[in-house]
Specification:
With 172 residues, the chain is an alpha+beta fold. The chain contains six helices and four strands, in the order ααααββααββ. It has a four-stranded antiparallel sheet with strand order 1-2-4-3. Strand 1 and strand 2 form a beta hairpin.
C-alpha cells in the first residue's frame, strides 16, 4: 500500500496546507472579481460571500465542538469558542494575535496582514475593504452576539495607520 501525503502529514502540517489553499482560493477569487468587475464590485461580493460563509463556519465549529445546542451567553463561553475556532481556521502565516484584555473585549493586532499583502500584489490595497475583521464580525453576528468594532473599519486600516489593531466590544 502506498503511503499518501495525507498519511505523512501531521495535524499541524495538514491544517496549514488546507488553510493556505483556502486563502489562496479566496485571494484568487477576489483578484478575478476585481479584474473582471472592478474593485467596488469585488469588495461588495467579497463581503456577501464572507457573510454567507461565516454562518456555515460557525455551525460547523459548533458541531465539531459538540455545541450545536449551546447558545453562547457568557464572555467565558465566547473565549472558549473563539480559541477553539481559531485553532482550526487560523494558519501560522496569518500573523495576528487576539487577546481578551478585559470582560467583553476582544483585542486584535495584525503584524503583517496576509490579505493586505495580497491586495498590494494585485494593486488594489488602497481601495480594499477589510474582509478579515469583517469575517470575525460576521461570526459574532451568526452566533447572535451584538458587538461594535473600534476603530470602525471601511478600507484597510493599513492605509491610514501604521498598524492594524483594535477592539471588538461585545454585548454579552
Amino acid at each position: 500500500m502506498v503511503m499518501t501525503l495525507f498519511d505523512q502529514l501531521d495535524k499541524k502540517q495538514l491544517k496549514e496546507l488546507l488553510v493556505k489553499c483556502w486563502m489562496t482560493h479566496d485571494g484568487s477569487w477576489f483578484y478575478n472579481c476585481a479584474r473582471e468587475l472592478g474593485i467596488d464590485a469585488a469588495n461588495k461580493l467579497n463581503k456577501a460571500a464572507i457573510k454567507t460563509l461565516s454562518a456555515i463556519e460557525m455551525k460547523s465549529i459548533q458541531k465539531a465542538m459538540g455545541w450545536e445546542n449551546v447558545k453562547i451567553e457568557t464572555f467565558e463561553q465566547l473565549k472558549v469558542f473563539f480559541t477553539n475556532g481559531f485553532s482550526i481556521l487560523k494558519g501560522d502565516f496569518m500573523d495576528f494575535k487576539y487577546t481578551f484584555p478585559e470582560n467583553n473585549r476582544m483585542h486584535w493586532e495584525m503584524n503583517q496582514c496576509f490579505a493586505y499583502k495580497g491586495m498590494e500584489m494585485i494593486g488594489v490595497h488602497k481601495q480594499y475593504e477589510c474582509g478579515v475583521i469583517f469575517r470575525v464580525s460576521c461570526w459574532l453576528d451568526a452566533l447572535g452576539i451584538t458587538h461594535r468594532i473600534e476603530p470602525e473599519i471601511d478600507t484597510c486600516l493599513l492605509n491610514s495607520r501604521e498598524n492594524c489593531s483594535g477592539d471588538i466590544i461585545l454585548n454579552l
